[in-house]
Amino acid sequence: MPQYDYDLFVLGAGSGGTRASRVAAAHGARVAVAEEYRVGGTCVIRGCVPKKLLVYGAHFAEDLRDAKHFGWDVPSPCSFSWSTLRDNVMAEVDRINGAYTQTLNNNHVDIIPQRAVVTGPNTVRLADGTEKTAERILVAVGAHPAIPECPGHEHGITSNEVFDLPELPRRILIAGGGYIANEFAGIFHQFGSHVILANRSQELLRGYDAQIRDRLLQISTMKGIEFRFDAAFRGIDKGEDGCLTVHLANHEPVVVDCVLFATGRRPNTEGLGLADAGVELDELGAVKVDGENRSTCPSIYAIGDVTNRIQLTPVAIREGQAFADTVYGNKPTTVDYGCVPAAVFSHPPLAGVGMTEAEARQKLGSVKVYSSDFRPMKNVLAGRNERALYKMVCDGDTDRVVGIHMIGPDVPEIIQACAVAVKAGLTKADFDATVALHPSMAEELVLMR
């Protein structure tokens, strides 16, 4: 008889946990996955997927205004139904949730719709009190939105609740300076809300190239989004009329209808019992793992946002695949965290891969930077003064392209191919030798001087 109930017990059925479960089961392992909310995790249920659908919806605001320049007779103003978009987005989330569930079922993975906590190196306890044993445990429980500790913080919402808003706020204050804050700032602005973005520091989108993020700040300000910097939260008061008065350091109080906290994410390890099993956590509560995703307890592994390495869905999926292939597929695999592309679906979007100019100058010393600052053809005919900016950062000694950074229409779609080029170690001469695809925005990549 088997010594354990399962070969692998996975905590969390998000993108990473689902991939690890499916692949491990395909390799012949007996697998169970416990999910206390819905199969699909943050990305599918309350993150990347529904947010990107809102981004698509928001883009119609500008497209419809521009359409008249292209000969279309579009009423001005056009009416917008938040409830229609919201409900259609949630219906698509339900569809994908069903697809993820079906994938696990097809691979004979036992789905346990309960919270599970670790009670030992090989045991977990479910919410109903039953215990399960497994030769290995994989922690893939992700992260949750961090909320500032200030009086009245309970009056705000996070990205978990934003998709369920009963109506659009007329005025919204978004706290944070990262990608979630800037994406929702663009979304709500295009839907007609007055948006104020409050950041506790003076820097937006830390980690992205300085010129690119400065361009986003310039464009966003021109569009009417307000910014408050050095604006740590002091408190939120809720009036009898439901309005929220937000008190910020170094600024006058702001009255809004909604406060959205986008102030970072923290690993979901609290109350999970990991310390009792000998799993070491870092100062933020993330599981410490080695290159093979193994924790300090030999039978317990962790992947995805709960490890706080790179909080991106494709990275979690790669880690889940690598874990399953290594442990159950006799195919030792490690994840290469170099040249991971990233995008911010702001208005306009920005994207980058590789070293920023500042990073390259610090690490390489000799650096050459090429750029193209241009007005996309569509914007010209539409009478829109919004400009795109592409940057290529090269090693000054070898001509190798070490980073590409962009802001403008469709750049997230373009950066994926750029990531292949940067990871392959192509040179500026390789780009120059490639014939341009005209007319396109992407042709600027091979024309930069």
How would you concisely characterize the structure shown here?
The protein has 449 residues and is α/β, with parallel strands linked by helices. The protein has eleven helices and 22 strands. The strands form five sheets. Strands 1, 2, 3, 4, 5, 6 and 17 form a seven-stranded mixed beta sheet that branches.
Shape: globular
Unreliable stretches, pLDDT < 50, 5 or more residues?
none
The span between the termini is 69 Å
Beta-strand portion reads 15-25%
Main beta sheet strand tally, sense and closure: 7 strands, mixed
Mean pLDDT metric? 96
Tell how many strands the DSSP assignment holds: 22
Q: Tell me the structural class.
A: alpha/beta
Please tell me how large the radius of gyration is. Answer: 24 Å
| Alpha plus pi helix count | 11
Name the helicity range. Answer: 25-40%
Give structural notes.
The protein is α/β, with parallel strands linked by helices and 449 residues long. Helix content is 31%, strand content 23%. The strands form 5 sheets. Strands 1, 2, 3, 4, 5, 6 and 17 form a 7-stranded mixed sheet that branches. Strands 8-15-9-10-11 form a 5-stranded parallel sheet, covered by helices on one side. α3 (48-67) runs antiparallel to α4 (82-106). The model has no long low-confidence stretch (mean pLDDT 96).
